[in-house]
Amino acid sequence: MLSQPISVTFDIGGGREVSIETGRLARQADGAVTVRQGNCIILATVVANKEPKEGQSFFPLVVDYNEKFASAGRIPGSFFKREGRLSDYEVLISRLIDRALRPLFPEDYLCDVQVLITLISSDKEVMPDALACLAASAALAVSDVPIKEIISEVRIARIEGQFVVNPSRTELAKADMDFIIGATEKNLMMVEGEGDECAEEDLVKALEIAHEAIRQQIKAQQELRAKVGVAGKRDYTKPEQNTELQQKVADFAKDKIYQISRSASAKHDRSDAYDTLKEELIASLGEEADDTVKKQAKKYYDDLQWEVVRNMILDDRIRLDGRQLDQVRPLNMEIDILPSPHGSALFTRGETQSLTTVTLGTPLDELLIESAAVSDYTKFILHYNFPPFSTGEVKMMRAPGRREVGHGNLAMRSLKKMMPGNEYPYTVRIVSDILESNGSSSMATVCAGSLALMDAGVPFPKHVSGVAMGLITRGTDGKYAILTDILGDEDHLGDMDFKVTGTRDGICGVQMDIKIDGLAMSTMREALEQARKGRLHILDAMYECTPEARSEVKPHAPRMEKLFIDKEFIGAVIGPQGKIIQEIQRETGTTINIEEIGNYGEVSVFSPAKEGLEKAVAWIKGIVAVPEVGSVYEATVKGIKEFGAFVEFLPGKQGLLHISEISWKRLETMEGVLKEGDVVKVKLIGIDHKTGKFKLSRKILMPKPEGKRPENPA
């Protein structure tokens, strides 16, 4: 017999109701809910295997967010007319959910878990990404899958000075701060977003307001779980523990790990030393140790290394590479290092290096970004590549993964805050190739991107830099250490990964993941202030490298000029079936894009050569120019008649140069006087208001013979 659906409803402010329902859809999943606001409906399901795979040593969590085009009454634009692999937009939302959910599972839980979130009905004004994690958490809450806590996520935006939770799409367009925040009832878990050079204290305030809204959503999930009657969570097979072996590993390796850790060695030297010590440990177990014991010993060794390094940083206040806690690694940066790209920069910070290029293109190069609710074009593109050699590894080269998409998006949003507006006609593509990586290559991309944009002559008003922060805490005595410019190893063993980008005047982007309970706001403020100092230190070096953008693009970059014409002239520039604009492009070697905006036309002209640009611009100006009586023009003879010559004095505008207006001397015939293609100077002496015909004179520009009276004075 079918069970009756169970639901709860709550208000997120302003009379906007959100409902969570279970028991109607996808009932064979371990947990399934729908979340609805307005016409936006999201289905979330969770299924977990009962037992881990044999030999499993990590937690295999898969989170996929997908938007069905049918949810908005649309058919996909692909050749196959069906949804394919996740778009970058869907990947980014999947990452937001994954990062918040992953810490909820017990550390010894190794069963496969799949969380699928699907937009099945779209609302143009409701942003689904703000509701997706709520749906995922609710599906887990009504299941017996073992999670430690319930969470949720909200969007917090500052609009006209006021913070708004989960604003509409229209409201969000006016925001100067936009953050997605995930949290449990007590603790922040994840922060991602951007600001228009916002202050650190503004970010803290946004976090506090968002956390209150999240608590309301958690309360609704708890109510739903109680209505469903979830009695408890399932038991699961836990990895076997061998305390005797664990102690043996500690006795053999603890002091040696400490000595390696405080040697301030380079990344690969340190890694090789750790690996050698692990091999010595396994050898010390003797030949009687089987594969299971060796595998356990390796895990205990890794756990011991994690503990020793953390305690060294907390107690000795030194780091793996010997730096102070707030010290940025050595910086080196250059611009204009590649001859052919339109802009380039090489940014090196310690053992992390980004080679970044900028390419300038036309509006025809804009990127179409498509989701179920919105299809839009963007003129600013950033791609981040992470080849395996950057970490000294051998791996298959495949399409960009979720990590590359996420890192590139953070850098793109940070730099976009300083990009010129829509009046800038170029499409700009940045490509960051990471050549070395030991921590925070996304922040290196931000710095290298800022330098390369200025090298390309993009009117980029301020440098943007970024720094990755870390946090290590110890609950037994309350000690903590905030780390500036973290290494890859420090990211792995830390309790927080906190990336902050911005200018000298404020924050442009934030990405934060917190792995511990009870992060105090005072600690958050301290981390933000330390990040600000690190950011300013890097910015000082960037301004020394290049203080401002080039005044113009490089000689080999495409030239551009933008014209604004009256709407009525758009057709004249294009011509019948595009004849005129095609002729201009063919004759001048340019690319011309025309867009109608309101009551005027926006004409963008691009050319690889300055001469072609000038010729095309003059041509277009001639087409849209209004002939003025008394003005002098260079005219081209288009046709000869017995009574005169038809000449084109402006593009698309012709008039009759009567035989009597060619010369002061009386002409009996046009033979031998002018021929087609001749260029002559003429003066517009009148316009027939009935017919609109133009009256032109050549002789009026010639010296008048003695005693001769002008026949057509102007």
UniProtKB/TrEMBL annotation:
Limits of the S1 motif domain: 630-699
EC numbers, comma separated: 2.7.7.8
Reactions catalysed: RNA(n+1) + phosphate = RNA(n) + a ribonucleoside 5'-diphosphate
Location in the cell: Cytoplasm
Source taxon at top rank: Bacteria
GO molecular function: polyribonucleotide nucleotidyltransferase activity
Cofactor: Mg(2+)
Enzyme class: transferase
Sites where the protein binds Mg(2+): 491, 497
InterPro entries listed in its UniProt record: ExoRNase_PH_dom1, ExoRNase_PH_dom2, ExoRNase_PH_dom2_sf, KH_dom, KH_dom_type_1, KH_dom_type_1_sf, NA-bd_OB-fold, PNPase
Annotated family: Belongs to the polyribonucleotide nucleotidyltransferase family.
Function: Involved in mRNA degradation. Catalyzes the phosphorolysis of single-stranded polyribonucleotides processively in the 3'- to 5'-direction.
Protein name as annotated: Polyribonucleotide nucleotidyltransferase
Species of origin: Niastella soli
